[in-house]
Amino acid sequence: MTINLDNKGLKSIIENYDLFFIDLWGVVHNGVKLNEKAIDVLAKISEAKKNYILLTNAPRPNSIVKIFLEKMGMNKNMRENVYTSGEAALSYLKKNFLEQSFYHIGPPRDFDLFIDFKNKKTQDISKSNYLLCTGLYDNHDQDLNYYKELFANSISKKMICTNPDLIVDRGEKREYCAGSVAMVFEKLGGKVVYFGKPYPEVYNQSITNNNKKVIAI
After folding, report:
1. What whole-number distance in Å separates Cα of residue 184 and Cα of residue 179?
2. Fewer Cβ in 10 A, N or C end of the chain?
3. Partners of 82 in the beta sheet?
4. What is the pTM of this model?
5. Which of 50, 56, 48 is nearest to 23 (CA)?
6. Residues 122 and 160 in one domain
7. 95 and 186 housed in the same domain
8. Known Gene3D superfamilies for this protein (predicted)?
9. Are 162 and 65 in contact (CB under 8 A)?
């Protein structure tokens, strides 16, 4: 039987699943404030003794996003279920690229992602072993053509993209995300490794999900 979740809500199917992957931005909050109805559903999932992971394509470690959510008013128990695309990428980078130099594409607020190996960051794209894309530069956040010129002679390098999203709505404002920059790189012929929804690594790293009935929201 088909259930209309628009009418009955997620609470009506909680008993049907063991694990809930729930998108953080756009579902639980809008970048400015929490969705109180979503918070109520998270509480119901916990009451039912089910697991949930709050997934976000934020290109930052889990700890930074938890602080952000605390400021919004989310309680500690809920915040502990956060897993970011940045955390998934960080695990991969530490395992495979820790001693290699990289060129960062993104704003200064994303520097927390590579603080443990910041000495490997180079200001010269031609001297980098790989490209780490977390977003757009603050002074080029609306101009994708800028990145075509930036990447023109670096197509042979691998790009690590820590946020596959193309755009995001922050309250009433729409912004480009790292995925839009990565798409420019791919169209030029470059190879991109993505971390975050909908790619599998972020799901597999966040929790053991073998033999569980799973739903993603």
Report:
1. 9
2. N
3. 54
4. 0.87
5. 56
6. yes
7. yes
8. HAD superfamily/HAD-like
9. no
One domain for residues 187 and 109: yes
Query: What SS3 class is residue 36?
Result: helix
Are residue 183 and residue 104 in the same domain, yes or no?
yes
Q: Taking the alpha carbons of 81, 85, 90, 96 in that order, is the dihedral positive or negative? A: positive
159-170 pLDDT, tens per residue?
A: 999 999 999 887
CA 148, CA 128: separation in Å to the nearest integer?
17
Residue 1 β-bridge partners? none
Residue range 162-186: average pLDDT? Answer: 92
Do residues 87 and 117 lie in contact, with contact meaning Cβ atoms separated by under 8 Å? no
Q: Please state, in angstroms and rounded to a whole number, the distance separating the CA atoms of residues 86 and 160.
A: 11
CA distance 149 to 23: 34
Structure tokens at 65: 């996003």
Question: Burial letters for 190-210: b for 16+ Cβ neighbours within 10 Å, e otherwise?
Answer: bebbbbbbebebbbeebeeee
Is the domain of 114 the same as that of 143?
yes
Residue type, 153: N
Domain count, the chain: 2
| Domain, as residue range, for 123 | 88-194
**Distance (Å, rounded) from C-alpha 168 to C-alpha 141?**
13
Specify the CATH number for the domain of residue 48. Answer: 3.40.50.1000
pLDDT for 37-78, tens place per residue?
Answer: 999 999 999 999 999 999 999 999 999 999 999 999 999 999
